[in-house]
Design goal:
Chains A, B: Keywords: DNA-binding, Transcription, Transcription regulation. Chains A, B: This is MarR family transcriptional regulator. The structure is a homodimer. Chain A contains 7 helices and 2 strands. With about 200 residues, the first copy, chain A, is mainly alpha-helical. Chain A has 2 domains: about 55 residues, no CATH class; about 110 residues, Arc Repressor Mutant, subunit A (Orthogonal Bundle), CATH 1.10.10.10. In chain A, strand 1 and strand 2 form a beta hairpin. The first copy, chain A, starts with about 40 loop residues before the first helix and ends in a 7-residue tail after the last helix. At the A-B interface, helix 1, helix 2, helix 3, helix 6 and helix 7 of A face helix 1, helix 2, helix 3, helix 6 and helix 7 of B. The structure holds a DNA duplex (30 and 30 nucleotides).
Chain lengths: ~200, ~200
DNA sequence: AGCAGGTGTTTTACCCGTGAAATTACTGCG
DNA sequence: CGCAGTAATTTCACGGGTAAAACACCTGCT
């Protein structure tokens, strides 16, 4: 969540940069690469016409990641809104549920990739709704502990299967094998990005 | 950009749902799947411990797409901010540059996946900065036409190569072949999502 | 011609997230 | 003990996005 709103609402990616592979890749042999009938392909084509000298390769990847994320999130939000939760709120509740224990605001911020200020606000709202409770730490009075109420736990447990089913349906656009390949490639990229990310901040 | 802020700022994905493949997929043979040392893997593991009966497969894909998008966008924003532009502004300018001709606010909204209201605001700001100009349509006085100024065009052309180089560096975490595979898989998913997306709005 | 209905754009009101400052509290050291 | 330094959390001011309402204008029908 902390990341530039990949998630939240409107979402991002749109007309981003995208490049075609470094020569390798996607072609399936048949006329159109089979996967190339997406918005990003069109955008890349336009850039190539205007700037034929540029290597548009990265756009193909990054543009698609962004756009997929946007669409997937949009889809995912539907079931949540029906339960009256925003994605950010669900993420917070989910963090509490999956860790199985109380978390401090700071931990929640790290866990949900959002700012401390955002956590403060969300916790306040969720407390008012009776989904979450807070208590001060007895030793260190600076810190607070947030935990799910019974209602909160029930809400998460009720939504989660629905959410997963919905995601499964959306992903069915890709067969099982491809989903696995995709998860693998993304995981590889992700683990390296998360590793030496700070090193690239020019 | 219109999509639910995959992009923008704080970014989203965080503690999202993610599933492990449907049996196929990522394993490389060696102990840890090689790609499984990312944040998402940990989150999925937690969910599985708490809800062993649920199929966490979709999380593996969707969670990673979201998280990758968040990190990539965060990285991409760096070069833009140095030029004093937000990603949304750059997308708008980029749409004008790559299409090569004037666009109406409505077209800009569609092209950048954002709301009309957002376009109105951005165009106003960019006009004040002298990067863009607007003129009313002579036939239909409801519509406006927005075009790049010379300064705007120069700015985009100056930033783009830098942006692409930066993206290329970030993606170098994956070798060329894998980038191609990834682009292919994402393109396939994306084209189907974009196709029958509206059909899933329960 | 005149108006009902539709379309393109802007305005309005509001929500939500952020960074920086403020607040409160702990800790180690002289 | 008392204070400088640091840490956890909240408050503040603001930017940017959205949906819905308001506008302005066109078009087709009678």
């Amino acid at each position: 969540m902390t990341a530039p709103q990949v998630a939240r609402a409107g979402s991002t990616a749109g007309a981003d940069t995208a490049r075609t592979g470094t020569g390798t890749g996607a072609g399936e042999g048949t006329g159109t690469p089979a996967a190339a009938r997406d918005t990003v392909a069109g955008v890349v084509r336009q850039w190539r016409e205007v700037h034929p000298e540029l290597d548009t390769g990265p756009m193909e990847v990054i543009g698609r990641v962004n756009r997929c994320a946007a669409l997937l999130q949009q889809a995912e939000d539907a079931p949540l809104r029906r339960a009256g939760l925003s994605r950010a709120e669900f993420d917070l509740l989910g963090a509490l549920r999956r860790t199985g224990h109380e978390l401090t605001p700071g931990e929640l911020a790290r866990e949900t990739f959002s700012s401390g200020a955002a956590v403060t606000k969300r916790v306040k709202q969720l407390t008012e709704r009776g989904l979450v409770e807070r208590r001060g730490d007895t030793r260190d009075r600076r810190v607070a502990h947030v935990r799910l109420t019974e209602a909160g736990r029930a809400l998460v447990d009720g939504i989660l299967p629905e959410q997963l089913a919905y995601e499964k349906a959306v992903l069915s656009a890709l067969d099982g094998d491809r989903q696995g390949e995709l998860a693998g490639l993304l995981g590889e990229l992700l683990s390296r990005l998360e590793g030496h990310m700070q090193g690239l901040r020019r």
